[in-house]
Every structure is written in structure tokens, then in C-alpha cells.
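Schema walkthrough. Field components (list of strings):
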Amino acid sequence: MGLPAGTRNYSYAQDMAIFRTKTHWAMLLALLVILFTAPLYCGNYWLSVANLIGITIIAATGLNILTGYCGQLSIGHAGFIAVGAYTSAVLTSRLELPFLVGLIAAGFAAGLIGMIFGIPSLRVKGFYLAISTIAAQFIIIWVISHWTSVTGGFTGISVPPASIGGITFTSQASLFYLIMVITVLVVFLAKNLARTRAGRAFVAIRDNDLAAQVMGINLFRYKLLAFFIGCFLAGIAGSLLAHWIGFMSVEHFSIMDSILYIGMIIIGGLGTTIGPIFGVLFIRLLQQWITSYIVPGLEGIFTLPAGFATGIGPMVFGLAIILFLILEPRGLAHRWQLFKASYRLWPFSY
Amino acid sequence: MAELLQFVITGITVGMVYALIALGFVLVWKSSGVANLALGQLVLISSWFTYGMLVQAGLPLWLGLLLVILFALALGWVIERFILRPLIAQPILSLITVTLGLAFFIEGAVSFIWPKSVAALPRLFPQQPVHIGTAVVSQEYLWAAAISLILFGLLSLYFRYHKMGIAMRATADDQRAVQACGIPVTKIFSMSWMLACALAAIGGVLMSCIGGITFGLVHTGLKAFSVVILGGLNSFLGAIIAGPIIGLAENLGGGYLTPLTWPGVREVIPFIIIIIVMFLKPYGLFGEVRIERI
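Field assembly_structure (string):
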């Protein structure tokens, strides 16, 4: 399964290896080299796009662990990201704690809030859980926008730039390294989490939680663990977002963003590590393409109706989610698998 | 005391409109098992469509409202036929998320076609406020409640006596048995979507008579979720009873809690109720407790 022709596994370690052959390792090295030398030949614009993509990948990976692996649908992800962003913003700007403390605290704060709103998942699922996470989103945003003494309310809060040791991350290039290192770590951890006891328990719960319980999986522990990990990553992403933008207001965390995160992992492919990456790339690049090329390009040719610029994005994303669910419910990750399989066997058909 | 009566009357009347919209949700959920999370957006787009017909096109009232109902029915049919039909027998996760995609699409379409964020419908009801005891209530509220009550009555008659209504109840009970009896289940599905959209449209028109057309109408749909959660997902009676409760809680809480907490508490009370119900009685007041087997 999935091995290049002529390669066989003779030991357990070989069987479990993620990077099995020398080609795999070479590809990985090449990818990392290209990724980390990107600031040398990319302009600031593309670096900022890459930073946004990296942050979104972290958040989407968290949602994928919760929804894709454990099957607990959460439509409040933007709310949990907001918890992380504001925790980090408040700790670093008002209490002047170091960035790393803010980052870790953001993860734990979002994780704990996520666990609280995840408690209903023990008794209900599907639509009920979706609604309770929507409720979580609205309650969180309401608290943030009205707790003016701490969060700054509707006027927002300015966030100092991230700094570790003596290094301050202010330029897009330096932030790029910070965000990409964390993104690579998160993706690596997510890949390995799926292969541990907890990851296998998540999959069992997703497939049938009753059967999982009968097999001896502690539903209480593992569902809450999934909520914690998913929202922890959301908090990390939120913290990075806060320090990347440098200014936080609740407009960054609307319910539509939560839906967009769901859309990303659907388009990428639920329950795969590569899926969220594909989904985030797809949505974010589409967003950039529409706002920076399509709308100005068309405006040059036609006089567009007034609502075109604001309306076209949501319409395209909504359509993309619907079409992927109908035509390719396993997402881009499945296409990628098919491509890899045919690449390995080429020129033979099987 | 005067304001208490005021809050109670507005709460109950607005709650009835919520119940009306929630009925559309329950209808779809019972017959096809699809959770329609695009409810708020359906309310939004039909209110804007009403605006388009009555104000922008300047049609007479009866023709405009008739077209709105027809538009809602057509929208329901299109949604069921082209989005939900291909997903029959897919896992619940896909069924929920596809309606989220739909919500996204409709919201984009609304800001595409009607770029303004606020508009007002022409007056559909007489303007003089009515004095009930010490409270002064504008007539829109009473009309909204009356129309909702009439529709509840008509719907219950429809489900009780009409062939199609009975078939819909039967589908909710057991899809396979219904199919064996020769009732086209897919037709029932599209009927339920059409009815749900029509109810959302009527609810939208009533709400926008009260508060104007804004993006807040999406929240009206979200409040309908707290109605169905409180009443129980598969209970018509639950929705009708829970609607006024949510309306009351919202208005009383908004009236008396705002000085104690922060402004805008009115908007989150339905969501706080959702969380409380989830913790205490997740299947709602009248919902059926689902027993699962492996």
C-alpha cells in the first residue's frame, strides 16, 4: 500500500516510517529548503500571504483533529482563535509578559474554553453540537467586545511585536520564519498524533462512538482531549495572528470565518494531515486571486455593480464548499493520493 | 410595571415569529434528517427579495407578496433538488456542512445584489399604536402574532387532514415503510424544503416590518435554532411553545439584565439558553430521546 514499486518493509520501524525511502527524504529536504529560503526571492506581499496561510494551516489542523479525526463538528473555531488572540494580546500588551508566555497561555486558554463548550459533546452530537459551538462563538465574541476594561472592546487592542530572547519579529521575513517553524512543527505533531493511541481512539469515536465506548475507550477523556488539542492549536494560531497583525479587533473572528475553516478542511479532505494544507492553500490563494486580480481586472473592463467586490468572495467559497461535498467529498487529499498512486505505477495501469 | 407588560407582549409576539421560522426547520429535520443551518440566510434573502419587489420594482402589495411566496417556494425546490438530493444517505457531517456552504453562498448573493446594508419595507400594517392596559404596542407586533397563529392553525390542519401532510408525517416516522407504500419520498423532501422556505420568507417579512431589513435578520434565523433546541428537534408543539419562551427571555433579559451586565446582552440570551439546555436537557422540552444501537 502506497509504497514505490519494489520497496518492501522488513521491520516494524520500516512499516511505521512516514518517510520510507531516500526519495521521500530528498523531497522533504527539498521542500524545507525551498520553504525556508523563500524570503530570499519572495516580495513582502507574497511573504505576508504565506504568513496568513501558515497561521491558517495551524488553525485548520486543529479543527481537523477535532472534526476530521474525532468527528465533533465545531462551527465556533473563529471564536476559539479569538480567545487565543486576545489572551496573548492582553498578556503581552497590558501585563508586558514575554511573547512565549503569551503564546503558550493563548493555547491553554483557548483549549480550556474549548473543553468547557465541548462538554455537551458527551451527550449530544451532530446538529446539537454544531449549534452549541455556534452559541460558543457568539458568547465568546460578545464577551470580548464588551469586556472593555481588558480587551479594549470595539476599539480594539494594539499588540506589541513578538520577541524571543533578543530577537524582535517585526518584518514579514522574520515573522515568516517564526510562523513557518511553528507550522511545520504543528503539522509534524498532527501527523504523529493521528498514529498514537489517542489518534486511533479519535478515529474510533468518529466512526461510531458507541462501539468505541464498548471497546473500552473513555469517551469523556478522549472527546474532551480532542476539544482541548483542537482549540489549543486554534489558540496558538490566534496568538500568532495577533502578533502578526499587531492590532486586534473582533471583526477578525466572525461566524463566517468559522464556516470558512470548516470549508477549508472539507475542501482539503477530512481526517488527513495533508488535507488542511491543501484546503487552506486553495481558499487563501482563491481569496487573494479574487481580491487582487479578478476584481480589479474586471473593474478595468466593465463597470461592476456596487456589491460585486464584497459579494463575489462568499459566493465563490459557498459554491466551492457545496461542489466539493457533492462531487469530491474526500477532498483534494484524495485526488493527491490518486495522483501519487498513478505516479508510482506509471507507465503501468496497475 | 408598565414596562414589564410591554416586554411580555413584545416578547410573546416576536417569539411567535421565531416559532414560525423554527417550524420550517423542524419540518425539514423530521422529513429528511437534514439540519438546515442556512435558516437565517433564507430569512435574509427573502426579506431582501420582498424589498426588491415592493420598493425597487414598485409592484402592488398583493402581487409583490405573492411573488415573494413563489420565490421562496422556487428557492426551496432548487435547494432540495440540486444541493440536498445528491447528498441523500451521506453522513450527517456532510448534510450539515453543505447547508453552511449554502449559507455562505446566499449571504454573498445578498450583498452582491443588494449592496446596501439597511433598508425598510413600506408599511404593510396600520400605524397607530395600540394601548393594552398600560403598555403601548405598535400594531406590527400584534399582526405578526396573529398571522403566525393563523399559520400554525393552517399547518396543523394540513398535517392532520391533507393527503400530502399525512404523507409528510409518515415520512418523518419511517422512510422505508413510506416508500413501500408508494409515496415518492424525494417529492416529500422537496415539499418540506419548499414549505420551510415559505415559512422563512413569511417570518422574514414579518420581522422586517418590525425592525427593518438588516443583517440582523440572520440572527433571527439563529434564534430559531435556540427555539428548536429548547423545544426539541423533532417536535412541532415544542417549537410553538418554545418560540414565545425565547422571545420572552430575550425581551425580559434585555430589559432587566442590560443595566446589570453589558449592553447587547439581548442578542446572546438565546445562545446562553442553548448552552444551558445542552447541559441540562439536551433533547429539549418535547424532543424524542434518541436511543442508539450499534
